[in-house]
Structure formats: C-alpha cells, structure tokens
C-alpha cells in the first residue's frame, strides 16, 4: 500500500514538473515581439483587431491567433486560461480582478480606442432619428413606443450588456427582441426586414466584410438623441471626439499572461503610433491622436 502511495506521489510530482517545464519553455520561446499566442476578441470589434494583427505580424516574427467571441464567451475562455489576452469594451469587474490576484497575476489594462454602438434601420423606414428614451422604454417592456423590434448580434454580446445596463434591466424582453450569432447577421436581417432596429458594433459598418457590403445600401445609420438631450448625433469620429454621441464606449486590451510575452508587445503596439493610426483610419477614435510630420521646403522647384 505504501509503495502504491509513493508511486502515485512520484507520478504527480513528475507530471507537475513536466507541466512547469512546458510552461517555462513557452515563456522562454515567446517574447514581446516573437512567438505565437492566442488573442480573445469581442466579436463586435473583430475587423479592427484583424487589421492590427496583420500589421503586427508583418512587422515582427509573431503569430497571433484571433478568436472572436461574444463578450461572455470571451471572458469565460479568458478565465479558463484558453488565452490570457483579451480585447473587450469594458475593464475587469471586481470578481474577475480578484480571480487573477489569487493567481498572483496583476492584470495590465490598456485603453486603445473609443468605439460606438450604432443603431440601424431598413432603408424603407423614413425616420432616421431615434431617441434613447424610446429604446429604454422598449427594453423595459413598454409596447407603446415607436420601436417594433430590436435586433442583437448575440444574447451574450457586449451590445446586449451595454443596452440592458443603460435601461436598468437584467434581461431583454421576450417579445420583440431578436438575437443571432454575429454582427453580419444583424445587418442582413435589418436590410431585409423593415421596422426593425439593429444594434451593432460601429466597426462592422466602417469596415464591412464582403458578405455584408451589398446589404449596407439597404440600411440607414440612425442619429441618436441622448437621455435628457435635445439634439441628435450620428456615430461619427468627430462626434466621438466631441463626446456628443450618446452610445460611445471605450475599448481595452487586458493582458494577464504574467510574463513578458506577446500580450505586452501587442498592447504596446495598439497604444503606439502605428496602432493608433490604424484606429484612426478605421473610423474609431484613437486614445492618443497620432502626430503629423510637416516637411517645409525653402523653395519650390
């Protein structure tokens, strides 16, 4: 019996030793600009991060595997150690931060951009204005609003969380709310059905995929009136900069690798000159405005 216990103990120690060695080997192989890692991304900002990864990989000897998921799914994978790098439209909450503190890991959170949640309607709908108070009333179950239905990309998405938090409700109503699996499906559904209001990440309208480009001609991007406000504002880069668009949100990259790996390098890239220029070109608002270099010539040839 003692021999069996000793063998079991030896086996456990051996497995632990090999696991630690593998972990150390991964750390040694991966640096801030070299190696391979997985990045979890909120699906609503997938196009922007795809562009960032393409430039980063073209600059350094690095491979970043992008896994786009709904916000809840991305966080579940993040906490399960599928990846320790994630791009979200929120920071870690108290429970999530405490989880990493217990692992002796200090989360590194970097703000990379300001995004917007856009509201879209079918081109046949003449009204291109919408008031947040009507959206809130609809989410609270008021059937007397002008809104016939809201269309979300995913019941677990960041857009659902944002809108339910704004309305002060835990869940969306059972009637009049439609959920799919992606932002592409939202665009397609609204383009084919009048009377519906789509709730979508602005990034998908500014950087549409080939699958939805043709559908964009059949939708309106609505101007939104904030709570207790009189004016309506479209989700433009200028309105994000001036703070007038009421459905703005910040984007963050959160790194909990616990060592100097690609998470640290990619976060620095996103917040740096090149990364912020990519944000600017995407139509979102950079956290730091990239500088402009002027070449002054003494004479004109």
List the SSEs and their pairings.
Elements: H1 2-29, E1 34-42, H2 46-59, E2 61-69, H3 71-79, E3 85-88, H4 94-102, E4 108-122, E5 129-131, H5 132-139, E6 149-152, H6 158-167, E7 177-179, H7 183-192, E8 196-201, H8 203-206, E9 219-221, E10 223-225, E11 232-233, H9 237-242, E12 248-255, H10 262-271, H11 273-282, E13 285-286
Pfam families: PBP_like_2
Protein name: Phosphate ABC transporter substrate-binding protein
Keywords: Signal
Summarize the structure in short.
The protein is α/β, with parallel strands linked by helices and about 300 residues long. About 40% of the residues lie in helices and about 25% in strands.
Give an overview in words.
By secondary structure, this protein is an alpha/beta fold. Helix content is 39%, strand content 24%. The strands form 2 sheets. Strands 1, 2, 3, 4, 6, 7, 8, 9, 12 and 13 form a 10-stranded mixed β-sheet that branches. Helix 5 packs across helix 6. Residues 1-23 have low confidence and may be disordered. It holds the Pfam family PBP_like_2. InterPro entries: PBP_domain, Phosphate_ABC_transporter.
């Amino acid at each position: 019996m003692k021999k069996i216990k000793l063998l079991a103990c030896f086996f456990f120690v051996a497995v632990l030793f090999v696991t630690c060695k593998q972990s150390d080997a991964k750390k040694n192989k991966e640096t801030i600009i070299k190696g391979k890692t997985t990045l979890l991304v909120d699906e609503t900002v997938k196009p922007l991060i795809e562009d960032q990864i393409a430039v980063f990989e073209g600059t350094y000897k690095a491979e970043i595997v992008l896994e786009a998921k709904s916000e809840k799914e991305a966080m579940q994978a993040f906490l399960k150690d599928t990846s320790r790098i994630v791009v979200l439209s929120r920071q870690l909450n108290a429970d999530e931060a405490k989880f990493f503190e217990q692992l002796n890991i200090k989360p590194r959170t970097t703000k990379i951009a300001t995004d917007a949640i856009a509201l879209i309607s079918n081109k046949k709908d003449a009204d291109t204005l919408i008031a947040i108070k009507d959206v809130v009333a609809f989410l609270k179950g008021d059937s007397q609003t002008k809104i016939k239905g809201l269309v979300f990309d995913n019941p677990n998405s960041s857009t659902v969380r944002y809108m339910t938090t704004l309305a002060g409700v835990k869940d969306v109503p059972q009637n009049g709310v439609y959920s799919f699996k992606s932002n592409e499906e939202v665009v397609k559904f609204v383009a084919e059905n009048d009377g519906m209001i789509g709730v979508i990440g602005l990034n998908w309208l500014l950087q549409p995929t080939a699958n939805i480009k043709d559908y964009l001609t059949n939708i309106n991007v609505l101007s939104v009136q904030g709570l207790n406000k009189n004016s309506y504002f479209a989700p433009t880069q200028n309105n994000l900069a001036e703070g007038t668009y009421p459905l703005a949100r910040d984007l963050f990259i959160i790194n909990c690798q616990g060592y100097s790996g690609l998470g640290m390098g990619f976060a620095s890239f996103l917040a740096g000159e090149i990364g912020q220029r990519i944000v600017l070109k995407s139509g979102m608002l950079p956290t730091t405005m990239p500088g402009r270099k002027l070449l002054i010539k003494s004479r004109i040839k």
